Sequence to fold (990 residues):
Amino acid sequence: MSRLRGVLLGAGSAVAVACAPTRLQVEGRRSPMPQPTTPPVLRAGFARADITPPPGVGLAGNGPEGAESQGYRLRLYARVLVLADGAGNRLALVVADLPLSSALLHRRVAEQTRSVGIGVDRLVIAATHTHAGPGHFFEAAAYNEQGSSVVGFEPVMLDSLTSRIARAVLAAAADLRPARVAWGSRAVWRNTRIRSLPAMLRDVPAPTAPADAPTDLAPEYGLVDPELAMLRVDLRDSVSGAFRPAGAFSIFAMHGTGNANVNDLLDADIHGIVERLLERHIDRDLNRLRDTGFVPRAVFLFANGAEGDVSPAWPPQSRCAVPMLATLPALDGPFTRALWRWRPPPASDLAACRHSAREAVAAVGASVASHAVALFDSLGSALTDRLELGRAFATLSLSDSATALGICSAPAVGMSTVVGAPDAYTRMRGWRLLGLFDIGLKEGSTSRDASGCQAQKRLLVSGLLGHALSKSLPSYAQVMVLRLGNRVIGALPAEVTTTAGRRIRDSMLTAAQEAGLPVTSALILGHANGYVEYVATAEEYAAQYYEGGSTLYGPGEAAMFGRALARLARSITAGDTLPAAAAPPLALVLGHRERLIKRMSLSRAAPPQIDRVWCSGDTLYARFQLGGAWAWPVDSGEVAARARVEVFVSDATRRVVSWDDDPNVEMRLRGRRRGLAWWELRWSGAAGQEYRVRIPYGGAESEPVRCPA
Amino acid sequence: MRYRWSHVTALMLLAAPLTGQFSGRADVTAGGRYVWHGISRAAGLVAQPSVAAGIQIRKFSLDGGAVLHYELDHVSPGELSESGADGPRLGEVDVWGRASIMLGSARLQSGVVHYTFRGDASAGGLGPARNTTEVYAALTSTSTFNPSLEAWWDVDRVRGAFLRASVDVPIIGWPFPPYVFGFVEGDAGLNLGQGPNPARPLELANFARRGITHVGLGVGAERRASRLPRIGLTTLALGVRSQLDLDDATRINGVGRKRDFLVWLWAGVTVVMGGDMRTLR
Fold:
């Protein structure tokens, strides 16, 4: 009997362990004391890593509407800029085509880059917030398990992103060269709009459009922060000794939600187009490179700003309907009942809104890129070899220090969070109990009893369930203030609304100036070094739109971050190492571990083969076998020298017209068999010529196919 | 004739991959009672395994299947039982076929069910004398309440009509995999011609009188248990059903026993394969 009991206890314990969420304690490796370099000049280095994962992972950011990825369109990159001053102070800026940043990823990368002087306090990993990027590597269980329709924490994703980004930081640090830099900014109108205008209009004083705003703009377009800020970096060419344009770092507030909510391809979204267009401009137009290669040599880090309530200017028809709860008539005979399902909208509707969204992505991308190109070019005459570097870093324990910080002690999600935002409403929006009773699943759903700490927030769940949910939400915030010349940059692990961002910027700039720093401007860098959802002003919070409902720690959060960044702005230092209290260990609950990316190694390297190529209208299709079933497009994470697949004109010129990193190319996985991957390429740019498809690595080439004019 | 059927079957099998989609379904449901058209046929633990297969060609589909009704409990004298026997026994075998067409958000169906009773009439069960065949037509809508109206016509033993109206209303759906759904189901029956027929006094009637036979209400939950990509999926479900009995036939709960109100639990597992199920998440 006792043996049986022991077996049962053992089995029970095994089940409990297997079902328990993954917990992790991660250390904060601070930067060592900087070592002065000779000669004491400003230096900079760029690098990039390909971080496109294999299909099958969830596209995070749209909650339940986030699809399982079926392939990729624009590859995902992490772009790195390492800056070093003569005193040996280094700062590494990473902007990754990811949906959210992660404190876990930040700290894991810092463990590997500390050897080159870049610990947690000198490393910024910011996400572009593309909603077509992978999840499964976040610091909080809620985001791993409710970030997309594919749920779970995947250690392979975390490890792979960590090693790829760390290698890129090390490569940039190894390539530090004398640099000249220039800061500048430019107003970009008509490409973004405020998506929660009723909430913003509650702000006191009432928001007003800047004096230089075009007069014909609707309020939601006129009240955005239009600033595109840019740090242009030119590097000395090792052969000629001349300084050549090398890249830039920018901040611009815009959600990464150009793609339709039903997009099922990994994609860098609008940010990816802006990045590539400026990089090509630098390579082709400024540096006169004839062979610009598959991957541009220039590197443009296009980071997000206070974009919490800022959407790109997508048209309404680019947002697709969402699945509805419906019966599933699956052979339900007279004696068996109908099953239930989430019924998707008609395929033709989805195709139409996907197409509309892609047109918007291209248009907004080209428009913003034209501003970036103009700004970059205008900075050529302002380059200098002086850029003072400094930083201040702190880790806020949001739950444990809530009283001291002036926020609620437990994070909570509002009903309006479940509903989603206009960029991608969820299937829960407008849902009524039994189809009749309004239970508050709508924007602006406020609590009647506003007496608690969470005040107007109508809680999704309360009591024991609310307590359990709060454990899956983040409880730390890593905050940082950087000084880059005459700019201070507040790096926040959040999506800050326009007005909250303006207030935080003002308090940060005032504090820095009071501390005697010769700075003239302040910027907010969002989605940096972690993720604690949204930061709305207290007035916006009271309106309980999506941003207010997603401000986890209550109405005092924006003011709290303003105080925290002001305090950091007063304590910006260089040439030192920070105390251990700045980066205490983080105890993280990551959610359930899932094996989403199979660990498979090919016993034999099968040569690629192209099965079929054909045209239909302006679309060229190709089906082929390429690579291992679960292989990442770039195994090592370094940058590929050539595309995986190319389309070229079948004539004597053999001119390459497209490849698998083109906004007009979709790479869709058709199947995995015998450890190999079968793909379909769709290129929607064919026009009245004869084309061939080739796979450069492996030498496969198709027969020519003529596409109609 | 057999030769001709084999030709038809072979043609369907050959044509199906070109034009239609095959699907299959297997269910095992266990419950505290077996109720059909409001009439309790067995009280106590019952198990009902069933299989079904079908082919869908655009908006048309042809389906067919069979269901077995097992009683798992020991039956005491006077207790309601189909088999009438003590111990686990097969009480009823039903086969059905159906054609249906989707018309926008509505589904129109027409089918036939043949009931074969395996019980021992001398021991209080339902024997072969009860065997019969019904044809039916149903109109189902996939709007908010998923209403359905069914018209049944016994063409063999009773020769009369019975109407059933039902609704399936979702309460909540968990939007992340594994999906969980909560639902309310309600139904009501109306006997139009399956009562005693003075013209044929020897006929075994289903109901005691014309009019509403029962009103039922249930609550259930369904969980997507697993998904096999490109094959199908499995669901688990459980629920509770209640019924207000309004006809003497629906009140019968054994020899000399009647109940106006019934409550029972049920649980089931379903495997569906092929067709749209291959890609359903």
In short: The longest strand of chain A covers residues 177-187. Chain A has a mean pLDDT of 94. Chain A is about 25% helix and 25% strand.
